């Protein structure tokens, strides 16, 4: 697992470590690692044009010391100073090494050069020499704002960030891109768009969660000795070996029942394909058996596509026995409908003692029913909710979709606590929360997954893993990973449909098996 820690945890760890080390040791460690990674990104260090964007904090000091190291390797390094404050020892090191210094802003009519003052008439302007240095560089180092930055970048930082993002240079962020919230990944206004980020001591949550993750590029971690001082991680990002260790491996003694029996209550006359996709996702993940219950026409379609399914004619509007039966887990909701009879079916499933995954219409039924909400709260069996942002906004009081998208970590954690369940929030960054456990961020996927039916497949995948005996959190984590990898493997980057995922899921599973060997 890759672990990420909050700003407060990092600050406390730094203070504890610095108390035992000579002054400046941590910064020198960070700067040395930064310089090494910058050198690796250049075709040739000697003669390369490097421009440092330097703020007044420790990030600026890291950039300056790294710049001095690059000068020693033959690079031509210039530092663009963004404000009137600068790290004095770092600046002295750069100048002593032979680096150049550029005042990044020109004084306006009122003499304003402090970064706290914004643009507008009389405010600071980006100096022509600074602009040229950024646009002509081979590599730009973003040392404007550190992990303590909050809110949008102010001028002249915002203008410098825009220039760096528009340049042809390779852009390297120091610790995280300026303008990205380190704890949440939120971006309020302009932010640096880096090709690579060199982060120190531990990963920061904002590097894993969009939109911040999309600004970070390739992230590299430099060990500066913080590990022993850090508490348990606030957030984790699984690696292939972590998922491979969790995936059930059939043994010689297994039969179809030991591998898990999944009940699927998905699809309706209006959305027949949802049943086919959900069942297919479960089968291609390796569940022992799928028992599908649905209307006659939907059942016929499912059996024709997946003849290995055990089918049951079950129409919620006319059937009297809506309980799950002898199964290991249940998936309910994809394309199922929101008729009162569907609410009765959902109630019967929630009153059972088997793990239940709720998606799509099942979530909409819960959000509109106090009694169903209470049933979710009272369940002792594992319960997994898999909403997208719109569905989660209906599940959470007084919360709109924009709020969910802007604060994904906070809102998914809130939902998990409120419903006492595991919650998998789908989106550009899939986030999984479970009460009392570390939040999980899924590292796989592609924007191509934004296609009709892909969520139905995900429900089937997660349901299969629930039926195999994984916890709801483990099933969600593995399912999101497999689903994302399948999307990448399906057509080599070409557009995909949800059906394409079904053929690619076994490839994703096999890839992980190799990772475990």
Structure write-up:
With 517 residues, this protein is of the alpha/beta class. Helix content is 41%, strand content 16%. The strands form three sheets. The protein has an eleven-stranded mixed beta sheet with strand order 1-11-20-19-18-17-16-15-12-13-14, sandwiched between helices. The chain has a seven-stranded parallel beta sheet with strand order 4-3-2-7-8-9-10, sandwiched between helices. It has a two-stranded antiparallel ribbon with strand order 5-6. β13 (289-294), α10 (296-305) and β14 form a beta-alpha-beta unit. α2 (25-41) crosses α3, α9 (272-285) packs parallel to α19 (498-516) and α18 (472-490) packs across α19. The longest helix is centred in the last third of the chain and has 19 residues, at 472-490. It is elongated. Mean pLDDT is 93; it is low at 108-122.
List keywords for this structure.
517 residues, 19 helices, 7-stranded parallel β-sheet, alpha/beta
């Amino acid at each position: 697992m890759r672990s990420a820690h909050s700003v407060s945890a990092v600050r406390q760890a730094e203070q504890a470590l610095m108390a035992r080390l000579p002054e400046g040791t941590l910064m020198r460690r960070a700067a040395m690692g930064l310089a090494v990674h910058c050198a690796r990104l250049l075709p040739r260090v000697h003669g390369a044009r490097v421009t440092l964007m330097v703020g007044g904090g420790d990030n600026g000091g890291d950039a300056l010391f790294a710049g001095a190291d690059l000068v020693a390797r033959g690079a031509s390094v210039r530092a663009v100073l963004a404000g009137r404050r600068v790290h004095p020892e770092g600046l002295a090191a750069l100048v002593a090494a032979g680096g150049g210094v550029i005042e990044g802003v020109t004084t306006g009519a009122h003499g304003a050069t402090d970064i706290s003052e914004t643009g507008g008439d009389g405010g600071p302007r980006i100096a022509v020499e600074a602009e040229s240095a950024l646009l002509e560089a081979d590599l730009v180092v973003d040392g404007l704002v550190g992990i303590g930055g909050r809110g949008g970048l102010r001028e002249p930082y915002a203008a410098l960030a825009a220039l760096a993002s528009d340049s042809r240079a390779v852009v390297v962020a120091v610790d995280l891109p300026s303008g990205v919230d380190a704890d949440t990944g939120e971006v309020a206004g302009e932010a640096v768009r880096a090709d690579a980020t060199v982060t120190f001591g531990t990963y920061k949550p904002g590097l894993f969660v969009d939109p911040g993750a999309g600004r970070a590029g390739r992230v590299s971690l430099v060990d500066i000795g913080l590990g022993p001082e850090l508490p348990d991680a606030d957030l984790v990002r699984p690696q292939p070996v972590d998922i491979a260790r969790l995936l059930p491996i059939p043994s010689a003694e297994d039969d179809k029942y030991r591998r898990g029996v999944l009940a699927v209550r998905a699809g309706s006359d209006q959305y027949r394909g949802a049943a086919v996709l959900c069942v297919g996702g479960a089968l291609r993940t390796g569940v022992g058996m799928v028992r599908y219950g649905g209307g006659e026409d939907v059942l016929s379609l499912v059996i024709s596509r997946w003849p290995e399914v055990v089918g049951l004619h079950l129409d919620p509007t006319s059937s009297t026995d809506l309980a799950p039966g002898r199964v290991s887990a249940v998936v309910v909701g994809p394309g199922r409908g929101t008729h009162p009879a569907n609410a009765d079916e959902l109630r019967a499933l929630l009153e059972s003692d088997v793990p239940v995954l709720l998606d799509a219409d099942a979530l909409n039924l819960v959000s509109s029913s106090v009694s169903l909400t209470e049933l979710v709260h009272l369940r002792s069996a594992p319960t997994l909710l898999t909403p997208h942002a719109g569905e989660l906004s209906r599940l959470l009081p007084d919360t709109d979709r924009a709020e969910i998208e802007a604060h994904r970590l906070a809102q998914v954690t809130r939902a998990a606590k409120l419903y006492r369940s595991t919650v998998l929030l789908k989106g550009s960054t899939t986030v999984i929360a479970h009460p009392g456990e570390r939040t999980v961020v899924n590292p796989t996927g592609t924007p191509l997954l934004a296609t009709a039916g892909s969520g139905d497949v995900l429900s089937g995948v997660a349901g299969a893993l629930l039926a195999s005996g994984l916890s709801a959190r483990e099933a969600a984590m593995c399912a999101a990973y497999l689903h994302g990898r399948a999307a990448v493997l399906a057509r080599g980057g070409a557009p995909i449909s949800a059906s394409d995922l079904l053929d690619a899921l076994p490839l994703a599973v096999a890839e992980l098996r190799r990772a475990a060997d």
